[in-house]
Amino acid sequence: MFEVLMTEEQKALREEIRDLVKSVPRQIILDMDADKISFPTEFLEEAGRRNLLGLRFSPEYGGRGLTWTEELIALEEIGTLGICFGCQYSLVSIVGETIHKYGTEEQKQKYLKPTLAGKKFCAEALTEPRGGSDFFGATSTAVRDGEYYILNGQKRFVVGAEGADYFAVYAKTNPGAGPHDSMSLLLVDRGEGVNVKHVYGLMGARGNGTGRLLFKDVKVPVENLIGEENQATKIFWQMMIPERLSSGAVSARASLALAARYANRRKAFGQPIRDYQGVNFKIADCITKLDAVTGFAHTVAKIVQQELGSAGYRRRLVSEVKKFSTQAQWEVLNDCMQILGGIGYTNALPIERNLRGSRLTTIWTGTTEIQNMIIQYEYFKEVLSKGIEGRDIAADVPLTEEELSEEIIYE
Question: Which domains does the chain have, with CATH numbers?
Fold first, then answer.
């Protein structure tokens, strides 16, 4: 967010978030990256104590009733700690979105309220071994048996699995129906039949509790169903808004500032390396990308908050934010490392850790290729349904209609 556009209230919130970020001990960050800490429990507890979780949700459940703009402001600051912290902060917003929008009052009191207070931790279970980007190809099943669903199956790459008290799990409740009419969303408490296995060897984003979930005849109370049975598709698409829009928070800005300060002090051939175009042009490119991402993300945040345009239009914009932001920040961090040279490739500076973490963002919550599929689909639908608006530029050529019919062949 450009500071000149921020209200005094937003600036005050930013200072609250900055104070939270400064309170995180350096050793916790290092231990998480070394896989010595599997879940940032203390961070979430402290954020809850400060009433800084789930900012968009109603105050009656522990939120602040704010907007997507404030959430992005918060995420931009939290992102300076590393991807793990921003991810865990977003999870409260993502899982909370489903409960706040589709859950019953009992579910909000039992799950949402303690989650916003930092007393319960959540995770979402989407990806399956055979699924990946094919979310609707999920094979986990939940069979109704009286007042329970019997859940069987497995999920993988579940961020926060090791520390979560409950999981938002998508499973097929009507396997015979089409893929978009067969799934339901359940809140599943950690307990008997829920087996959490740690996923080792992550390139980055360590200490996030990422794990695999195995469900074996888990009895899930019917009252833990979110929304209607077999109607989880609309919940999924709603869930993808916080999943993907939160990626628009620019966390690479701190890394770029570090690289700029280094370039101002580091000398080569008798002068600061910032004096060389090979360096300062990279800085110019990077800050332009980050400013463009920030401006775009905050504009889309307002469109989403006010529900402007069609659902397909908003879906396209959110996918564009996710694609643009994650690609831009990966490119910026690469340039930061190049500016730092050899020292940037070591753990003497945090750029290598941030770069490793950033690589994940172009994969999770729908790969860049999945975003491209959504973007082009919604754009084609929009353009072809409207017809030609404004001037028909196809006619602004020196050829006659007859000549055009000879030159342009469609079939």
Answer: 3-121 (1.10.540.10), 125-230 (2.40.110.10), 250-384 (1.20.140.10)
